[in-house]
Amino acid sequence: MNASRCLFGSASLGEIANLAGGCYSQGNILSSAEMYNSETQKWETLPRMNKPRKMCSGVFLYKKFYVIGGTGGVGKDLRVLTCGEEYDLEIKKWTEIPHEALFFKQRSNMRVKRSLEYIDYAFVS
After folding, report:
1. Name one Pfam family in it (predicted).
2. Residues 6+ apart with CB under 8 A from 81
3. Which of left, alpha, beta for 16 (phi over 0: left; psi -120 to 50: alpha)?
4. What are the pLDDT tens digits along the chain (125 aa)?
5. Segment 66-94, tens digit of pLDDT
6. Read out DSSP for 21-66?
7. For a disulfide at 52, which of 21, 31, 68, 104, Cβ 3.0-4.6 Å?
8. How many angstroms separate the Cα of 68 from the Cα of each of 5, 41, 87, 103, 112?
C-alpha cells in the first residue's frame, strides 16, 4: 500500500484488489484510491475520488469498482454520505453517483440490495 490508511472501502476482482477512501491515523479523511495486482505484486495509485470518504463500502460489479456511502467532511462538519462513486477500470475515471440514483428504488430496509440493482440496470447497460 502506498498510503497507510484505515476504515477504507475495498473489493477484489480476479488478481486485483482496489481500496478507496479511509483515513490516516490522525483522522484526515482521504479521497485517494489504490489498486493491488497480486500477479505483479505491485500497487498502483488510482485517480482521486470526487469526495473524500471513510467507513464506506466497496464492490466490483461488471468490471467496475463502486464505493458507496461512508462518512465525509472536515473536522466537526462530518456527515453521512448517501452518494456513491463508480471507477471505470478501462478509462481510469471516477463518476459520482448521486443520492437520488442510489436510493430512488428503495423499499423497506434493503438499501444496498436496491442500490446495486439500480447500478446494474442504469450504469452497466
Report:
1. Kelch_1
2. 51, 53, 56, 69, 70, 71, 72
3. beta
4. 888 999 999 999 999 999 999 999 888 999 999 999 999 999 999 999 999 999 999 999 988 999 999 999 877 788 999 899 999 999 999 999 987 666 544 444 444 444 444 444 444 44
5. 999 999 987 778 899 989 999 999 999 99
6. --B-TT--B---EEEEETTTTEEEEEPPPSS--BS-EEEEETTEEE
7. 31
8. 18, 27, 11, 11, 9
Closest of 33, 35, 62, 64 to residue 50, by C-alpha: 33
User: How do beta strands 71-72 and 79-80 pair?
Assistant: antiparallel
Amino acid letter for position 86:
E
Give the three-class secondary structure for 74.
coil
- The residues, any chain, with a CB within 8 Å of residue 75's CB and separated by 6 or more, are none
Say how far apart CA 103 and CA 63 lie, in whole Å.
Answer: 22
* pTM of the full structure: 0.79
Q: What 3-state DSSP class applies to 117?
A: helix
Phi/psi at 49 (5° precision): -70, 165
